[in-house]
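Final report, closing paragraph on structural work. Over the funding period we assembled a curated collection of sequence-structure pairs, and we close with a single example.
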Amino acid sequence: MFTLLLFLLSVHHVRGWNMWESDWTTVFVACSGNGKSVWDAWKGYAGVTCEASSVIEDADTCKQSHQSDPILNEWRSSRIEQVRLRLWKDGEIVVEMIFNGTDTNKFNWFAQSKLLSSSYSDIGELDARFTFFSSYGYGYGVNRRFYINKSNYLGCDVDAGWMFVKDVGYGADCLFDSYKKYPYFLYATNYHSGVWQRDGDYDFADMMSIQVHQGEEEKKGTTTLEEPEEM
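Its predicted structure, as stored:
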């Protein structure tokens, strides 16, 4: 945790971002094990829609259903400049990524090309290769969402990556697709990529939160109702 704190402080200093926590608006909170689809809640078809002041980074608020803000369906017209995704465990931040949200919709901001900073030391390396780096992730019944995975796929035993949401639905053939009650949030530990079926390389987060930082001048845009292409 101390290492992560130093990293986050250095990122804010180096990039010169003058942002306080109050500059971020929490727009989505999802909890593990509540049996509700994270992807459906993110798309806006399920979950609980709240007023902005009601969506907070607190695992007690999403034990029954995920929490979302109406801004999710007004993404393009909400002058979003940056997006911050966090994974939490026992009340502590275990993963943090910040993305460029300018000219994005609520699906395509989660991409390698948009990544500004990360608590992972190796995810931004020039030779990093990804099979998946997308919010849609691996659909077709496998249902790994917000999926960041390496391109060296040689089977379940050596499949490696950084994080994914295992959503409700079919468990697929890999052991790591059926670790516990859905949904669950799997992340690589030790601040670098890990193998999903190697003890010590991964852990489970209790909660995922997504926040946005909005610009002061409103930009032209339309509401975002489209879905990403199937993969």
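Confidence is low (pLDDT under 50) at residues 5-18, 218-224. The longest helix spans residues 2-15. We thank the funder for supporting this effort.
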